[in-house]
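// run 5 | inverse folding | seed 20
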């Protein structure tokens, strides 16, 4: 059985995964529906897959946060409790993540093997460059974009699909959360 792989990403309307300036997490647009939905989504049994840079960013964010900060939202705490594979050629030793394993090698090879061996679905939140490579290799079954109602043309960071191959997208799920956030789930197919 081949496990499904979901690339889960937050985005501004203009395609950035984050922003500088005075924007806060979730661009300040989160509400109870979004947070409850995320907790339910991460409540399912699954394995997380991260690239080294995203793992480092999450570990640093969590280490410098307090229990009351939005970084420690219940869904993030749940995500951190899930088993995780961190694909890296630079990280070594134990990680600041309860059930994480570092696997050295090319992400395409590592994820192809995980898809064959895993008994649970695979999910990656962030890890933009790794997931663009996995999409190009045909390993991403779902692209889940949570679209926040902002344009960050001056302060946008981390263009989600910059440098990606061309894809046709089949919309397979959609929902509106808190009356203004769109969650769109697509099945990607390499455009030839």
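// decoded
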């Amino acid at each position: 059985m081949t496990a499904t792989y979901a690339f889960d990403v937050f985005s501004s309307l203009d395609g950035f995964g984050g922003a500088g300036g005075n924007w806060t997490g979730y661009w300040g647009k989160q509400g109870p529906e979004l947070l409850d939905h995320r907790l339910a989504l991460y409540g399912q049994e699954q394995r997380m897959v991260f690239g080294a840079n995203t793992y480092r960013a999450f570990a640093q964010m969590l280490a410098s946060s307090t229990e009351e900060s939005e970084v420690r939202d219940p869904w993030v705490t749940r995500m951190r409790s899930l088993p995780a594979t961190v694909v890296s050629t630079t990280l070594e030793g134990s990680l600041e993540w309860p059930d994480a394993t570092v696997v050295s090698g090319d992400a395409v090879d590592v994820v192809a093997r995980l898809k064959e061996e895993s008994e649970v679905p695979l999910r990656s939140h962030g890890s933009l460059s790794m997931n663009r490579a996995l999409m190009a290799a045909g390993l991403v079954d779902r692209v889940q974009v949570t679209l926040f109602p902002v344009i960050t043309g001056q302060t946008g960071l981390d263009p989600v699909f910059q440098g990606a191959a061309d894809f046709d997208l089949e919309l397979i799920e959609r929902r509106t959360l808190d009356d203004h956030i769109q969650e769109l789930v697509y099945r990607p197919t390499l455009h030839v």
